[in-house]
Amino acid sequence: MTHKKIIEITEKITARSQASRKNYLDMIEAAQTAHHEKGLSAGNVAHATAACPVADKKSMIAGDWAHLAIITAYNDMLSAHQPYERYPELIRGFAREFNATTQVAGGVPAMCDGVTQGQPGMELSLFSRDVIAMSTAIALSHNTFEAAIYLGICDKIVPGLLMGALQFGHLPSIFIPSGPMPSGLANEEKSRVRKAYARGEASREELLATEMKSYHSAGTCTFYGTANSNQMLMEIMGLHVPGAAFIPPETDIRDALTREAVKQLVENAQKSKTKNRLADIVTEKSIVNAMIGLLATGGSTNHTIHLPAIARAAGIHINWDDFDELSQVIPLICKIYPNGKADINQFHAAGGMSYVIRTLLDNGYLHADVKTVLGDGLESFATEPVLQGGEIEWRDGPLTSGDDSIISDAQTPFSKNGGLRTVSGNLGRGVVKISAVKHEHYIITAPARVFYDQNDVVTAFENSELERDVIIVLIGQGPKSNGMPELHKLTPPLGSLLEKGFNVALVTDGRMSGASGAVPAAIQITPEAADNGFLTRIKDGDMICLDCEKATLTNLAEDFNKRENLHDKAFKPSENTTYQTMGRNLFAPLRNVVSGAESGGSIFFEEM
């Protein structure tokens, strides 16, 4: 039986979303009617089939085979997406086995946040999600398909694909991952060398050698950041075939799982009995399940932005209070780097998603009665695939963890509470990922040091200006200001200060990424600085208290509430000519209309 608090939160979200959800479903019904009744003209069909092989063209014109769209985020820049190069031809062959045809309907941009971390290009990253959503809509606008396949894995790509796909929620849809790269250098060793480099105790050559051993082949990066959190979400929402998330690329079982995904989608897309539409899978209950999965596994803070945007694309309204309330009842059952020593391959070997879903279901922490790509019920996602004679068989997943230092039973969790807190106070509202923060660091009170650029923080650290108790306040990093880049570059220096015994924390209107670790960080503060946020009233030396126990973020200065904006001109892109470089000028219109982080940091949706 589902936990009563989960039911209560879900009912609250459903009531809050009643009007917008109805509008969404009305839109989907109208699209379905138009798709079936209006059809394409002869000229439309001729253009759509012109380049197809003769056999496929005959089947498409006859209309007796389902026609599947492929939306691909393939490029060679992303290690996780490089394997997708061969997928369209692979999928084409599988589709023909099951009396279906396919076309690559379109490609979407896919940038690597690992390449752009700390670089100007990172300021395009969050906006790329909405561009991906629009690109997905353009690809499907031809209205020639009975179903859609989405090829994407990494940070902004899966949320963008899903946001775009939901505008075509009348189509049965499935997401197909390509899997994580093999384990390389241990994450703890990578972190150690990064911190040593930040202190000047390791050379750049040593740092590069370490990074190359960590990120060394095709596949998703193996730490539990946003990319792997995406795959967890797609599985727990029932948008993969079971067990697909963390099987390595270029393996027989990975190809067999792709075949099964195509087979299932063709079954869902039969014209006489279309079923398991995307709009019927992404519901209030499945969104709550996604939030629960994020909390139970200690997933990426980026999803406190992405999940509200995904939900809004389906007419559902969630906010950070929902995350916080769920976090009070959802146990933390995973220890995956940066919240533990294990990487994603070790997590998968210990039982992975099938065991996570099993123990959460058994203890009432998930809605079991949801629709998935397989049909009704999440129970089938507590199974795992096995390759037998070239065919996939699903067997019951493990009933106990293979390594209880990586995955615990939900009755004996690592923490009784999930890994996120929503904090609020006279500095605004923000999110803190506490799953990797030691309890003695839950409350930090220290003087502020205000910065406008993460590179200036690094310089101050290198000049030994931060060798003390300090709360780094980094402002002008929100979506309206500079596109909200991740600030992962700060992790090594701040981690080094923490290890020296200083009370240190970060407060920012920017993002800290899925790699947020041991340093307490109140991030994504809203309203942001560029939106007349309260962060702009902070002076160097103000005593600030970040209290993750009471969920408060407070400037303790007596005159704080009487102050005016002290930093208004320091971070406005319109007054900084550097923002005309690296394509950032093209995104100025998006910065002008984007919503705040709690509303999804999106150009599509108004503030809640």
From TrEMBL:
Q: Which residues form the Dihydroxy-acid/6-phosphogluconate dehydratase C-terminal domain?
A: 406-600
Task: Give an example GO biological process.
Answer: D-gluconate metabolic process
Which species is this UniProt entry from? alpha proteobacterium IMCC14465
GO terms for cellular component: cytosol
List the InterPro entries hit by this protein, alphabetically.
6-phosphgluc_deHydtase, Dihydro-acid_dehy_C, DiOHA_6PGluconate_deHydtase_CS, ILV_EDD_C, ILV_EDD_N, IlvD/EDD_N
Instruction: Drop me one GO molecular function for this one.
Output: phosphogluconate dehydratase activity
Copy out the cofactor comment. Answer: Binds 1 [4Fe-4S] cluster.
Concerning its family, UniProt says:
Belongs to the IlvD/Edd family.
Q: What is its EC number?
A: 4.2.1.12
Assigned keywords, A-Z: 4Fe-4S, Carbohydrate metabolism, Gluconate utilization, Iron, Iron-sulfur, Lyase, Metal-binding
Q: In which pathway does it act?
A: Carbohydrate metabolism; Entner-Doudoroff pathway
Co-factor(s)? [4Fe-4S] cluster
| Role according to the record | Catalyzes the dehydration of 6-phospho-D-gluconate to 2-dehydro-3-deoxy-6-phospho-D-gluconate.
Q: Which HAMAP family match?
A: Edd
Q: Where is the Dihydroxy-acid/6-phosphogluconate dehydratase N-terminal domain?
A: 67-379
Question: What reaction does this enzyme carry out catalytically?
Answer: 6-phospho-D-gluconate = 2-dehydro-3-deoxy-6-phospho-D-gluconate + H2O
Q: What is this protein called?
A: Phosphogluconate dehydratase
Q: Which domain of life is it from?
A: Bacteria
